[in-house]
Amino acid sequence: MVSREQVLEALGRVMDPELGRSLTELGMVRGTQIEGGKVRVGVALTVPGCPLRNKIRDDVVAEVGRVPGVEEVEVDLSAMTDAEREALGERLRREMARPTGIMSPASRTRVIAVGSGKGGVGKSTVTVNLAAATAAAGREVGLLDADIYGFSIPHLLGIDGTPRAKDGKIVPLESHGMEVMSIGFFLPEDQPVIWRGPLLIRALQQMLQDVEWGDPEFLFIDLPPGTGDIPLSVTQMLPRSALVLVTTPQPASVQVASRAGAFARRANQEILGVVENMSYFVCPGCGRRTHVFGRGGGEELARHLGVPFLGEIPLTEEIRSGSDLGRPVAIYDPESEAGRAFAAIARRLTG
Ligand code: ADP
């Protein structure tokens, strides 16, 4: 038995080539009749002499024909009335002019992007733990991995699986009390991402717009290191987003991080402050603190940028193993020195 739902689902995969939206989304489907294996579909084109009518017809026949049990597909093409066409045009214009969901100016979500000058300073580890500490404090949290080339959030949280689609949107995966999205959920682990500018930007836009984020209180974004297309696009697509910079205490790391700060400034992005990671190592035997990477880099960066210094995170074996096991220390050992440090910074950021 062929069901109407199956036919509509198939029609949801047929795109209007010019508008890039499905026939169902555009309200172009005009009734479906199912008699045994024979399906008749009515489609109202946006204009009567639509030059793409044959392509649309062929695509409908192909997609509906793929539904199990369908033997024959007939397509009745008609055209929208002037009033219908105008209403659709108005709707599309409104949607384009007014970004929806998390990108909408009306969204209550506070977006906190976490960036760094270079890789390896622990930016992703800090992002995950700040987000996790915020969720553990009972707040609603989304976490977006925008480090598209070097995605690591799935690994840091120990999650995999492919998000499902619902009503044309992608549903984020739930982990440790957060809603999580990463390009890594869609790519095999060994496949390199070789996208260039426009595709990266499109991927970011999809992860913001086509994902069902709901309306969380906070969205943490793990930015790629440096000052490329993605950090810039975040400032443009989310003009009210704010930045947290992560650095290690070393002078070289501070210097590159200050470039990322200057970049955000130029893009008018608010900088909430600086987190210094790997600040010191506490000897598990004698409790003595060693400043493995030197001292004071984070404070110096904060002073240089004229922003608050948010705090220090120690270098600990637990943070490293927690990352490798997908068990963020902010959740699994909140009373440890590292756990308390993350919680204190998260509280400063989220009020
Ligand atoms: P980035 O996102 O800046 O490239 P990551 O967060 O991926 O850096 O961290 C790089 C490595 O350093 C990871 O193996 C991580 O577990 C480890 N790491 C990060 N911060 C700490 C820390 N404070 N103590 C111990 N290991 C850390």
Précis, in short:
This protein has 351 residues and is α/β, with parallel strands linked by helices. Helix content is 37%, strand content 24%.
In terms of topology, how is this protein built?
Elements lengths: L3 H8 L3 E2 L4 E2 L6 E7 L2 E8 L7 H13 L6 E8 L2 H16 L12 E7 L6 H14 L4 E5 L7 H5 L7 E2 L2 E2 L2 E3 L2 E5 L14 H13 L8 E5 L6 H9 L4 E6 L3 H16 L3 E13 L6 E2 L6 H9 L3 E7 L1 H9 L3 H4 L4 H14 L1
Parallel strand pairs: 4-5, 6-12, 6-13, 7-11, 7-12, 13-14, 14-16
Antiparallel strand pairs: 1-2, 3-4, 8-9, 10-11, 14-15
Helix pairs in contact: 4-12, 6-7, 8-9
Bound molecules: adenosine-5'-diphosphate (ADP).
The site of adenosine-5'-diphosphate (ADP) has 17 residues, from helix 4, strand 14, strand 16 and helix 10.
Structure description:
Helices cover 37% and strands 24% of the residues. The protein is of the alpha/beta class and 351 residues long. The protein folds into two domains: 4-96, GMP Synthetase, Chain A, domain 3 (2-Layer Sandwich); 101-350, P-loop containing nucleotide triphosphate hydrolases (Rossmann fold), CATH 3.40.50. α6 (197-209) packs across α7 and α8 (251-266) runs parallel beside α9 (297-305). The longest helix is centred in the first third of the chain and has 16 residues, at 82-97. It binds adenosine-5'-diphosphate. Adenosine-5'-diphosphate (ADP) binds next to α4, β14, β16 and α10.
